[in-house]
Automatic annotation (TrEMBL):
One of its GO terms (cellular component) is cytosol. This is Elongation factor P. The gene is efp. InterPro entries: Elong-fact-P_C, NA-bd_OB-fold, Rib_uL2_dom2, Transl_elong_fac_P/YeiP, Transl_elong_KOW-like, Transl_elong_P/YeiP_cen, Transl_elong_P/YeiP_CS, Transl_elongation_fac_P. GO terms for biological process: peptide biosynthetic process. Residues 129-185 form the Elongation factor P C-terminal domain.
Length: 186
C-alpha cells in the first residue's frame, strides 16, 4: 500500500486490478482539516484519465510491475521497435503504449520497459536527455528588449521546444523528458 507521502508523478499503482500511472499530483493543506492529495491517473492499458482525491489516511495499492532494460532501435508504420538488452529479442510497441514519450525516443537510447503480468504497458525514459538542435531562428540583437528571452527550436526527433536566444543550430541541449522543457546546454 502506498501512502500519500509515497505518491509522486510517475508512480505506478493499481486500481481494480488495472495499472495506472500518476501523471499529476497536487498536495493541498486544508485549514482545520488534514491534508489531501489530488491526483490525475492515466490507465496504462486503456489510456483513460481518472481524477482521484486522497485524504491523509488513504493510499493506493502498489502495482506489481517488473522493469526490463531495452534499447530503442527504430520507428516505422508498425510501431516502435526495441531490443531487450538481456535476451537480444526484438519486439515492437504501438504508439498508444509509448504516448507522449515518442518525442524523446532516438535510436540507440536505453530505456526501462514496464511489464504488468508479462505485458508491456509503458516505457520510462531518463529524466534528462541530450538532443541536437536541427533548426531554430537566429537570435536578433534587441529581442530581449521586447521581453522575448526564448525562441522555438526543433530537435532531432522533430519535437519543438522553447530555448534561450543563445542556442544555435547544431548545439546539443538537455531536455527534461517529464516536462518537455529546455534544461541547459550540454
Amino acid at each position: 500500500m502506498l501512502s500519500i507521502s509515497d505518491i509522486r508523478q510517475g508512480t505506478i499503482c493499481q486500481i481494480n486490478g488495472e495499472p495506472f500511472e500518476v501523471i499529476y499530483t497536487q498536495h493541498v493543506q486544508m485549514g482545520r482539516g488534514g491534508a489531501i492529495l489530488r491526483l490525475k491517473l492515466k490507465s496504462l492499458s486503456s489510456g483513460n484519465v481518472l481524477e482521484k482525491t486522497l485524504k491523509g489516511a488513504d493510499g493506493l495499492e502498489a502495482a506489481d510491475v517488473s522493469r526490463s532494460k531495452v534499447n530503442f532501435l527504430y520507428r516505422d508504420a508498425e510501431g516502435f521497435h526495441f531490443m531487450d538488452n538481456a535476451s537480444y529479442e526484438q519486439f515492437s510497441l504501438a504508439e498508444s503504449v509509448i504516448g507522449d514519450r515518442k518525442h524523446f525516443l532516438k535510436e540507440g537510447v536505453e530505456v526501462n520497459l514496464l511489464l504488468f503480468d508479462g505485458t508491456p504497458i509503458a516505457v520510462q525514459l531518463p529524466t534528462k536527455m541530450e538532443f541536437t538542435v536541427t533548426s531554430t531562428v537566429p537570435g536578433i540583437k534587441g529581442d530581449t528588449a521586447q521581453g522575448k528571452v526564448t525562441k522555438p527550436a526543433t530537435i532531432e526527433t522533430g519535437y519543438q521546444v522553447n530555448v534561450p536566444l543563445f542556442v544555435k543550430e547544431g548545439d546539443v541541449i538537455r531536455i527534461n523528458t517529464e516536462t518537455g522543457e529546455y534544461v541547459e546546454r550540454a
